[in-house]
Input
Amino acid sequence: MGVVYADIELTNADDLSLARRHIIGMEEVKHLRLTMLVDSGAYMMAMNGSIQERLQLPFLEKRKVKLANSRVVEYDVVGPVDVKFANRMATCSAFVLPGDSEPLLGAIPMEEMDVMIHPFRQELIVNPEHPDYAVLRL
Output
């Protein structure tokens, strides 16, 4: 299987909550659209420091992760962040990777949005069994 990218919108969920309560205006909600590597082998979402700076997501904790080369490293976890693709949305936390690391869309937000990688077209798609809304296992 090749490398798959998708256009994703990220929104600071805390800002959105404040806007819904009319504490800040919708124009103050930090959000951004970007192309992310779709990585079904990664559990969580990951972003680099410059994305984190633009969204100003609050620090939640530090977590250790095992990289593909089996090395264990510790990264900050931030959130909550709303993740949107097509007609789907998930709320999750994200690792903050160093430097200009490529942002990753992992399996947890993919499962919550009920999206999948189309094997022939090599693209992220909404689940064709549920084209109008996400269906999750409880």
Notes: DSSP finds three helices and nine strands in the chain. The radius of gyration is 15 Å.
